[in-house]
Specification:
The chain is an alpha+beta fold. It is built from 7 helices and 12 strands.
C-alpha cells in the first residue's frame, strides 16, 4: 500500500474515533470526573491525529502551558500549536496513556495526573513522562485549560527533586506567613509575574503581568471589612508533580474570622517555580469555596 494511502486511512480512523468519543460525551452527564475523562480521551485522539485544528477544538481558552519554569498563555486557538514536525523528527508516531489518576474534583473543574508514553511507528516506547492537567467545564463542555508536562520524569535525580520540593514547600509557608502579616513586600518575594489563575467563579481566568495586579496585591482592609477575615491557614498539602524548577501542590486553605471560626474552605492547586534562583507562585487554580459543616 502506498504511504500516502496509509496516512489517509490512519487519519480517517482517528477522525472516526474522535467523532465516536465526542458523540458519547455529548450525552448528558452529571459526573464531573466522567466528563473530564471523556475530554481527556478526546484530546489524545486529536493529539495523535497530528492535526492542530483538531487539538485546538479540545481546549478551553485562554489556555496555559506550563513550561519548565515559565507559563505560555494561548489567548485564542490560533496561538496554540503542538510542534509536530519536531516530534516526528524525534521518532514520535503516537502517544498513549499508561495511567490516569483523578485528583481534585468539583462540579466544573477536575485535576488529572497522567503517565504517558511516546511510541514510534513500530509501536516501541521512545520516551515516557508525566503530565498534570486541569479540565474545566464551560457552557456545558469539558475541555483542557492547563497542562504541565514532564517528559523523561523517570530520569530525574531523586535528591534534586527532594530538594526542590523542600524549597517549594518553604515558599508556601513563607507565603502564608507574609499573607497573615499583611506584608505586601514579603509577598512580592514569593510571587512571580507573569502569573496565571483559574478561579472558581465560572472558571474565570486572570493573568497578572505586574505586581500591581489584584491577583497578587491583596486588599487586606477590604477582606477584613467584607468577611471579618483575621488569618488564613492551609492543610492537606500534597505534591502532584515535581521537577528541579517546578513543584505542583494541591492543598486546602481556610479563611478564619475574628471569632476564630473557619468560614471558608477552598481546595486549590498552586504551582511554585524557581526563577532566577527564587521560588514563588506562578500559577494557581481554585475550586469552589465551601463553608465547613
Amino acid at each position: 500500500m502506498r504511504p500516502e494511502r496509509t496516512l489517509i486511512k490512519l487519519s480517517c480512523v482517528l477522525l472516526m474515533q474522535l467523532l465516536a468519543v465526542s458523540a458519547l460525551s455529548a450525552q448528558p452527564a452529571s459526573d464531573p470526573e466522567a466528563g473530564a475523562r471523556a475530554a481527556l480521551d478526546r484530546f489524545l485522539i486529536a493529539f495523535n491525529s497530528g492535526d492542530n485544528e483538531l487539538v485546538r477544538q479540545q481546549l478551553h481558552f485562554p489556555h496555559v502551558t506550563h513550561r519548565a519554569n515559565s507559563i505560555f498563555v494561548a489567548d485564542q486557538p490560533a496561538d496554540f500549536a503542538i510542534p509536530y514536525e519536531s516530534n516526528r523528527r524525534s521518532g514520535w508516531a503516537r502517544s498513549r496513556w499508561d495511567n490516569v489518576e483523578t485528583y481534585l474534583v468539583s462540579d466544573e473543574k477536575v485535576n488529572l495526573g497522567v503517565d504517558f508514553s511516546r511510541l514510534n511507528a513500530a509501536g516501541e516506547v521512545i520516551a515516557r513522562g508525566y503530565v498534570f492537567y486541569i479540565f474545566t467545564k464551560k457552557e456545558g463542555r469539558w475541555a483542557m485549560q492547563y497542562r504541565a508536562r514532564n517528559l523523561g520524569s523517570g530520569n530525574l535525580d531523586e535528591a534534586e527533586l527532594a530538594q526542590a520540593q523542600r524549597d517549594a514547600f518553604a515558599a508556601v509557608e513563607y507565603f502564608f506567613a507574609a499573607f497573615n502579616a499583611n506584608d505586601r513586600f514579603a509577598l512580592s518575594y514569593v510571587n512571580h509575574v507573569p502569573q496565571a489563575a483559574i478561579v472558581y467563579e465560572d472558571n474565570r481566568f486572570i493573568l497578572a503581568e505586574s505586581m500591581n495586579s489584584s491577583l497578587i496585591e491583596t486588599d487586606f482592609d477590604g477582606l477584613r471589612d467584607r468577611e471579618d477575615w483575621l488569618r488564613s491557614e492551609y492543610s492537606d498539602i500534597v505534591v502532584r508533580g515535581a521537577t528541579p524548577d517546578r513543584v505542583i501542590f494541591e492543598l486546602t486553605f481556610e479563611r478564619i474570622n475574628s471569632a476564630g471560626e473557619v468560614y471558608m474552605r477552598i481546595p486549590a492547586t498552586w504551582v511554585i517555580a524557581r526563577v532566577d534562583g527564587r521560588w514563588g507562585m506562578q500559577f494557581r487554580s481554585l475550586m469552589a469555596s465551601t463553608i465547613p459543616n
